[in-house]
Amino acid sequence: MTPPRKPKSASAALVRELALLLDETNLTEIELVEGELRIRVARTAFAPMAPASYPHVGDTATATPREDAAPAPHPGLITSPMVGVVYTSPEPSLPAFVNVGDTVAEGTTLLLIEAMKVFNPITAPRAGRVVSVFVTNGSPVEYGEPLLVIE
């Protein structure tokens, strides 16, 4: 036997309460599951995109995050598919999966994102050369946050 569903007015009040909780805690999303009732409230903040320059063949680039400017839209931009913590190498004592200037094949592991104690590999959607890396090892990431660019 399934539990009775809450009336819509109670659900609407709960959504409002969760939205207020998001504001109070500066979270970007929250999910509540009670029996068959599942409510997820999320917000997305859009910042204006500042122009960015991407290195070309022969240019020197570093693998440090760029906090001063958001990357401009780029066809090779890879964004985070989830909220979590980025790991640039399989273990702290091992080298990074990829560095700026590396050539990668489609399916190559670029990073790991840990979410709820699960390590999710982020793989190259296509072959190319890594021209920018916007995250550092152990840094938190949000859904849609730029990770790196492959040309």
UniProtKB/TrEMBL annotation:
InterPro entries named among the record's database cross-references: AcCoA_biotinCC, Biotin_BS, Biotin_Carboxyl_Carrier/Decarb, Biotin_lipoyl, Single_hybrid_motif
Domain Lipoyl-binding: 69-151
Key words of the record: Biotin, Fatty acid biosynthesis, Fatty acid metabolism, Lipid biosynthesis, Lipid metabolism
UniProt pathway annotation: Lipid metabolism; fatty acid biosynthesis
CDD domains: biotinyl_domain (cd06850)
One Pfam family linked to the record: Biotin_lipoyl
GO terms of biological process kind: fatty acid biosynthetic process
Region described as Disordered: 54-73
Gene Ontology MF terms: acetyl-CoA carboxylase activity
GO CC field: acetyl-CoA carboxylase complex
Physiological role: This protein is a component of the acetyl coenzyme A carboxylase complex; first, biotin carboxylase catalyzes the carboxylation of the carrier protein and then the transcarboxylase transfers the carboxyl group to form malonyl-CoA.
PANTHER family listed in its UniProt record: OXALOACETATE DECARBOXYLASE ALPHA CHAIN (PTHR45266:SF3)
This protein's name: Biotin carboxyl carrier protein of acetyl-CoA carboxylase
Organism of provenance: Defluviicoccus vanus
Lineage of the species this protein comes from: Bacteria, Pseudomonadati, Pseudomonadota, Alphaproteobacteria, Rhodospirillales
